Amino acid sequence: MKITKILPVVFSLLLVSPVFAQQKNTFKPQKAVLNTISANIMDADAQYKYLAKQIKPEEFPKTFHPETGKMENSNSGWWCSGFYPGTLLELYGQNHDEALKTEADRIMGVLAKEQFNTHTHDLGFMMYCSFGTANKLQPKPEYKQILLNSAKSLSTRFNPTVGCIKSWDSKKSDFLVIIDNMMNLELLFWATRETGDSSFYKIAVTHANTTIKNHYRPGFSSYHVINYNAETGAVQEKKTAQGFANESAWARGQAWGLYGFTVMYRETKDKKYLDQANNIAKFLLNNPNLPADKIPYWDFNATNIPNALRDASAAAIMASALLELCRYTGKTDAQTYFKTGETIIKTLSLPTYKAKPETNGGFILQHSVGHFPAGTEIDVPLTYADYYFVEAMERYKGFAGK
Ligand code: GLY
């Protein structure tokens, strides 16, 4: 074949490659959405100052019960303790209000002891969303030491025979791993980058590979919990804890997976993870049970759809993940992801979801579902809905160079 015939073929192959796509995709943030985001950030600033008044010095906000008007707070060991300082810092990063940074520093002083907690897999959420964000804004040796200790504590839960980090402690014969655990791996990548010790990186990659193998169904929906045999690594059970049924697609679990594999691709550049994230995105976005406003029902297989409760937290996580994934993927999918992230931001900014000032206990968003089967945190605000909503808005602004 003549060179003049080969060149167009080579050129079109380059166009569809993800690396090239990353440089070529252009996204057009809408001025109206950017204005909504500016207003949301100002409102969230005031709202989080109000939230700060609802907690005692050692407490972390957990949720608010609209029917009783009561706050529910936690101690630093609760898996969500990093989201409150994380949200304060994300807001501070956007509007430089020193009062938010002061409150974040204060509460991180209470949180710091969790760096040595080896009884939870949630250290990524707890420590990376807080100290990791603080360290990105203003790197400090003390933040780095806390993050490194946290990565070491998390690594103690890795079992090489299973190929996973243990999520929940339970009886000795069980080794329970939940899809949410994908979110804790970012801390390990940070630790390898920071120290040059590849053992953290290897744990993250092994955990992700085992998760692809055992958590995902052929259509790229995910089980919530896999129970492994701790001695042989064999799968003993595939089930749910927070979803509607063992074979259902619990919405937040799907969102954790989407976000987690997007981070895996960012950190490794291994196309296998990009494919996984794209396939999860297709499961979500082509799902006939995803409403037009893109806020999922709490479980894609809840029996009372369209009357099932929505989960704003799953929507916020999806928006943030899609607004990163669109940077890595081919043109058509990239625009769909960008527009879906945008739609979610627009929907969550409406009065249905965004609380009026000094209501909702001081949380930004209403209508999330924590643990439906346990009957807890149903149709309430949750700290992680706020955190990923603020992160999604920040990512959207990034496309306008702001
Ligand atoms: N990691 C627990 C949850 O998503 O509710």
Automatic annotation (TrEMBL):
Substrate binds at D122, D180, T240, R252, W256. One of its GO terms (molecular function) is chondroitin hydrolase activity. InterPro entries: 6-hairpin_glycosidase_sf, 6hp_glycosidase-like_sf, Glyco_hydro_88, UG_Glycosaminoglycan_Hydrolase. Residues 1-21 form the signal peptide. One of its GO terms (biological process) is polysaccharide catabolic process. The active site is at D122, D180. Keywords: Hydrolase, Signal. Pfam families: Glyco_hydro_88. Belongs to the glycosyl hydrolase 88 family. This is Glucuronyl hydrolase.
